[in-house]
Amino acid sequence: MNYEEVLEKLEKSKNPRNADSMARFGIRPKAKVYGVSMPAIRKIAKEIKKDHKLALKLFDSKIHEAKILATIIAQKEKITEKEIECWIKKFDSWDIVDQCCMNLFSGIKISRKKIKEWAENEKEFIRRTAFSMIAVMAVKNKEMKDEDFLKFFSLIAKYATDERNFVKKAVNWALRQIGKRNKRLNKEAINLARNILEIGKNKDLKSVKWIANNALLELTSEKYQKRFKY
């Protein structure tokens, strides 16, 4: 399937009602939004399989769903650091960030090494990428050790003070997913959440209080207390 055929397929799958719904959930990219569902996008990706050149071209399109499709068909072994940096600078919605982390970035060593750098970046969606990466790795990367996640705690504590909606939600997501990996990380994440809550009280920051309280609600719930046999 070539570039023009893919765009035609996406256009035929347009769903204006779904596009409106996406906008209500904060998905308002600069690119056109067709409202194509993720199952439909994945079905197209299955037909294409992996095609790195096509992925690069699709990501440079002005169509939101084409960019998401690009993150699925891109090849981890072929993407370069320059291409990764180019893509991240063009992120303009929370869903493209999360899809890219889930479909591509979390499995690439180069991008894992960029987490601290991205967290320190002031741009909202670049900073979100750092914490989405941590959250996704906590779920998908079974080979990672507890220490690999504990080193992210200082970043979580520091940027829990970022009041921007798409950052605070990613920071919360990262904290919760780390705390759901195993008993040790559950305890450590609960302690971190409590420490973050103290920061919130001292600085009167709503984001900090929300991140900590929301994480504590889940991580101390009966579900996880039973799972980890406290």
Overview features:
230 residues; mainly alpha; 2 domains; 16 helices
Structural description of this entry:
By secondary structure, this protein is mainly alpha-helical. The protein has 2 domains: 1-87, no CATH class; 114-230. Helix content is 70%, strand content 0%. It contains 16 helices and no strands. The chain has helices spanning 3-12, 16-24, 38-48, 52-59, 64-73, 81-89, 94-103, 109-112, 115-119, 124-140, 146-150, 153-159, 165-179, 183-203, 206-219, 222-227. α5 runs parallel beside α7 (94-103), α13 packs antiparallel against α14 and α13 runs parallel beside α15 (206-219). The protein is globular and about 55 Å long. The mean pLDDT is 94.
Blueprint (SSEs and pairs):
Layout: H1 3-12, H2 16-24, H3 38-48, H4 52-59, H5 64-73, H6 81-89, H7 94-103, H8 109-112, H9 115-119, H10 124-140, H11 146-150, H12 153-159, H13 165-179, H14 183-203, H15 206-219, H16 222-227
Helix pairs in contact: 3-5, 4-5, 5-7, 7-10, 10-13, 13-14, 13-15, 14-15
In short:
The chain is an all-alpha fold and 230 residues long. The protein contains 16 helices and no strands.
Rounded to an integer in angstroms, the radius of gyration calculated over CA atoms is 19 Å
Amino- and carboxy-terminal Cα gap: 53 Å
Helix fraction, binned, reads over 70%
Mean of residue pLDDT? 94
Which structural class matches the secondary elements? mainly alpha
Topology, number of strands:
0
Number of domains: 2
Q: What is the number of helical segments per DSSP (H or I, 4+ residues)?
A: 16
The backbone outline, from C-alpha atoms, is globular
Secondary-structure element order, N to C: HHHHHHHHHHHHHHHH
**Subunit organisation of the chains:** single chain
Strand content: under 5%
